[in-house]
Amino acid sequence: MGWFSLCFEAFKNTGRTDIPLTPEGERQVKATAEKLVGEGRLIDPKNLCTVFVSPRQRAHKTFHILFENVPQVPHHVLTEDAREWDYGDYEGLLTKEILEIQPGWDGWKDGYAGGESVEQMQARVDSIIEQVRAYHKKYFEEGTVSRDVMIVAHGHFGRIFTARWVGFPLAYGTKLTMDAGAITILSYNHNTLEEPSITALNLSSLLIVDAHQLEVNPAEGEKSYEQAGSSSRGGSPHDNHEANGGNQTDRFEEAASPTEEDEPADQSNGSLPIPESDAPLDATTNSAPTPEAPEGTPPTVKAETVKSPAKKPLSATSTAAKAKSGMASTATAKTAGTSPVKKPASTLARSVSSSARTGGTTPTAAPLKKSVSSTMPKPAASTTRPSATTAPARRTSLATAGTKPLPSSTSRASLASSASGKAEPKTVPSRTSVVSPSGSVGSLKSAGTAGVKPRASISEAAVKKPTTIARSTATAKPTTSSATAASKPPARSLSGSVAKPSVARPGSISSIREVKEDGSAKALEDLRNQLSAANDELKSKTEAAAELEGQLESLKSSLEALKTEIQTKDSQVAETESSKAALESTLQGTKDELAELQAAYDELKPAVAASKEEVEVAKGAATTANELVANLNKQIATLESELSSAKENLETLRASHDAASSEAAVAASANSEALLKARSDLEAISAETEQLKQAQASALDEAQAKIAALETKAQEAESLSSQLVALQAEKEETATKVSELEIEILELKETQESLEDERDKLQSTIKTLEGELAQAKNGISKAADDLKAAEERHAAALEELQKKHAVELAEAAEKHSQVAQTLEATQGSLEAANAELEKAKKAVDDAEEAHKLKMSEIEQAYITVQNDLTERLASISAELESQESQYNAKVQGVKDEHDKLLQEAFERAKHEAGEDHAKELQALRAQSKAAIEEIQAANSNNIRELQAEHASSLESEVQSLNKQLNNSKLELKATQDDLAKAKSALDASRSEVESLGKQLEAVKAAAEATPEVAPELAAEISRLTQELSITKDDLAAMTEMLNLTKSSMTEMSDHHTRDVEEAAKARAEEVSKLKAAHEEEVISLAREKGDLAVKLSDMEGELATAKAELNSWKALPKMNGHGATGADTASPSGGVVTDEMLRQVHEAHNLKLGDLQAEHEKAMKALQQQLDDAQKKIGDLGAEVSRKTMEIQFMESEHDEQSENVTRLKDDLRILKDQLLKVGIEPQVSGDADEE
């Protein structure tokens, strides 16, 4: 995901203020576009799904400059969700001004009064993140959109967006660096949306560096870096916006104190000198002024930045260059240790003694504070007031040096020796023997005494007090600054530099005795004198501190007066806000009128709903038909179930010998089920183990998160300690605020004048807004007329649709009546067949009863004969025994003959039934084929008619759209001609303004030449010149607005043309796709029809054979030796099977007809839906054309306003001429100007 961050707000906090993009900003964006935008580059327009752009003109202009060289501008959305943080009542204020109004304020925690709170800002950024991730979800899961999403926004928004992207709180944005025009890339780890990450941060600020930003004066570059670095506040979100403001203040004070330029270039003024390889790292890093780090991280300087001689360090004047370009710089305000630094001219300061030599005349106390880069200023600078920016930087250096211990005892010894051996203060001759932080006896040896180690701990006060004096000398401050520096606790400044004695206090007393015994009482007396002198000086410093406190109270009173004055200004601003609210109320009235028009439009919706209800009724009728088809399908299912039961009976008779094999199969299936159950148990166990692993991983993640939270809390504790030191240092800054308050008084006067000018501008804007309101009313009336015309067109289209729908309903009703008639005819034939079937059943029943009677009679006769034969059997049994074999042979022959006759009768009946069935089946196939051909012909005719109607409707719609497009092109050409005329008029007005400016200069010269002009007249002339300059500025703004309007209009016309062409192509492709789909459906229907006919014939044959076999199995057990009876029973059963088969075939034929009719209706509905979609697209295109025409009208109204402004300026110039004539000054006007 691409991110493009903007920080083009200049000097002050500009959230709602819509400031333009400066020429320097345009140059920087163009350089970024040349290197990073284009096909195959980092920002590839083909990969961009959409672009969210802030509605501020600087962001919008940046977007268009970025993509001005690509063939097609990517899809972008202007959204208020991407705007800058709304600063509310603090709009246009600096951080120090806000802290004066609300002490202890922190924007990252407290938000902005009257603007957006922290929660509101976080919710707005989270909403944008949700939209972006929705696009990415579509890309990952569906692949329906492109890959990248781009956001063109502002500095604070970008830092908060980056923090929230990876799940950190809003205040984490203080730890991120985003320069003006920087690119940040946010993505995901492991190709999953659950792991958002930061891929690149502040990308283009290091890729695009101009050569002219490096070629500057080294001394000036260091001063600019010092000023920019000292004005930063790490815990405030205003760092982006106040860097330039701080530079302006420092340049003002620099002009007020020209002796500041005499300082050496390697003074501790914000540059980071690069030490030599044998210099200790701590001594190097603590020399630079460390700005306050963001809350939660202590201020640090990385070793890579200090020890990188291979890279050429960038000069800090790039910050100044950005300030001149009108873009807020964040390079120094956001990075305390990674900012590019300038290598000092000659001083790499391997020891403090060398820096003391470079300084010149006076020694310094810098060895006590490990500062390598600090040197002594010239004596001329000791009486000069320091700048407001360099002083905090030096105090920061002193504070950090005082709170950190020295790296080693060896370095302390070298520092002490250098301080004692190289130079002495001129004012205190014996100071060298006292100031020794390391316990070395070299200073006492210089006084003529033998070296004893415990002698360094005679009195800590004697060591500490002169150190304070040395600090005042090292910083080269006046008396006021020295007193302020002395107010700090001296023990704190030397707590890390004075070595602790290795012997307790009684050891110190013994050392004094040793001194007395050795005869060194003179040295002890000198030390005591120095101690008393230090105490006296300390008293004087405390008195000076008391005086400063009195001055501080007076300053506070003056500050309260300034606050009251600011409150009066706020009341004036509130009045302007009330007038703005009145204008908003009028705008709300216009919105209400628009809502009424929308309500009138909503009243037309019930008619559309009624038509939809009619469509639903038709759908209900279709559902009833579908239910009828379902019932027929159920009947078919019951018949098939009967067939399956018959087959099952047959299979049970045949499969009696397969019982053993089935039992074996059951056992095998049981074993397989047990195996599957065991596998499922194993999978459940593995799933449970995976869940346990996931729970363990989540617990580890929570523990790591807690550890990280504790680490952040520890870092916050360290930052709080550093803040405590900073708060102690702020007590000393009150003396420097006197000059700042004076400057602020002047600024307040200027703001008062600017507020008066703004009041006049607001009055003029109110008038223009009234004109815009009238134009808006006219536009609303036009919109109402257009809405009525659209309603009429919609009503006509609705009537046409209703007519078409009625015609289609009539056709469907006719088809339905035809189908009902055919159904009734088939039902009549079915009833006749059922009657014949009943008659056949009755005949069968009668035959069976007759057969039963005959059988009973035969049985009775047989019984009587059998009784007679049994009686005779006893007598002739012997005779029958000899003839038994003959009788059995005869019986067997009779049985064989009976079986043969039965088989012949069965085969004959089967053959006759097959022939009858074949004849009937052929007749049914011929009928079904004829019916299907008729249905296909009717469907093809209907489809051709629909296609012809659809083509004609599309042609008419395309013609109407072409007419509208030609009209819009004509209107666009007319507007372009009007714009050309306006441009020519604007050029003429420019020449007129130039001539009037020349005339005004001539009038000024004449006025200066005449000494008799009164001061009131001079003031009036100055006011009029100021108004003229304002008029010129307005003219320039209008010119730029006109250029932007022209570019936007050309873009709109191109976009509209592309949209129309794409829509026409899409409609043509849809029509071709519909044709192809319809042909494929017709082919598939024909294929399915043939397959179903073949399946139907096969099923009928199978059903006939199955029933014949079933009847044969049923008739076989009833045979008792009478072949004629079996033949008689077999022949009617064959006739019954044929009727059943005919009924089933008829039902199948009816079902197939219903299916074909349902598919036809479905195809008709699909075509109707496509037609509705095409009409909807046509309506959308018409709405787009109307919107474009409204935009053109709006641009014409803006052009009229510009022409009115030009005429108003001409009137003002005429009034000015009249006033000059009334005063008595005749302006020198050329003839052309008079004619104009």
From TrEMBL:
<feature type="compositionally biased region" description="Low complexity">
    <location>
        <begin position="358"/>
        <end position="367"/>
    </location>
</feature>
<feature type="compositionally biased region" description="Low complexity">
    <location>
        <begin position="470"/>
        <end position="493"/>
    </location>
</feature>
<feature type="coiled-coil region">
    <location>
        <begin position="1153"/>
        <end position="1219"/>
    </location>
</feature>
<keyword id="KW-0175">Coiled coil</keyword>
<dbReference type="InterPro" id="IPR013078">
    <property type="entry name" value="His_Pase_superF_clade-1"/>
</dbReference>
<dbReference type="InterPro" id="IPR029033">
    <property type="entry name" value="His_PPase_superfam"/>
</dbReference>
<dbReference type="GO" id="GO:0050278">
    <property type="term" value="F:sedoheptulose-bisphosphatase activity"/>
</dbReference>
<protein>
    <submittedName>
        <fullName>Uncharacterized protein</fullName>
    </submittedName>
</protein>
<feature type="compositionally biased region" description="Low complexity">
    <location>
        <begin position="379"/>
        <end position="401"/>
    </location>
</feature>
<feature type="compositionally biased region" description="Low complexity">
    <location>
        <begin position="427"/>
        <end position="443"/>
    </location>
</feature>
<dbReference type="Pfam" id="PF00300">
    <property type="entry name" value="His_Phos_1"/>
</dbReference>
<dbReference type="GO" id="GO:0046390">
    <property type="term" value="P:ribose phosphate biosynthetic process"/>
</dbReference>
<dbReference type="InterPro" id="IPR050275">
    <property type="entry name" value="PGM_Phosphatase"/>
</dbReference>
<feature type="compositionally biased region" description="Polar residues">
    <location>
        <begin position="348"/>
        <end position="357"/>
    </location>
</feature>
<feature type="compositionally biased region" description="Low complexity">
    <location>
        <begin position="408"/>
        <end position="420"/>
    </location>
</feature>
<feature type="coiled-coil region">
    <location>
        <begin position="1061"/>
        <end position="1116"/>
    </location>
</feature>
<feature type="compositionally biased region" description="Low complexity">
    <location>
        <begin position="288"/>
        <end position="300"/>
    </location>
</feature>
<feature type="region of interest" description="Disordered">
    <location>
        <begin position="218"/>
        <end position="521"/>
    </location>
</feature>
<feature type="compositionally biased region" description="Low complexity">
    <location>
        <begin position="311"/>
        <end position="339"/>
    </location>
</feature>
